[in-house]
Amino acid sequence: MLKKILLILLTLSALSVLVLAEDELTQEEKNKINLNYNKTIKSFMKDNKIVTNLVYDSHAYVVFPSIGKGGLIFGGAYGEGRAYIKGFWVGDVILKQYTVGLQAGGQSYSEIIFFKTEDAFEKFKKDGFEDSTQSSIVPIYSGVSSDVDFAKDVQVYTSSSAGLMLEATTGAQNFTYTPKK
Question: Which residue, of 92, 104, 116, 161, has the fewest CB within 10 Å?
Answer without folding.
Answer: 104
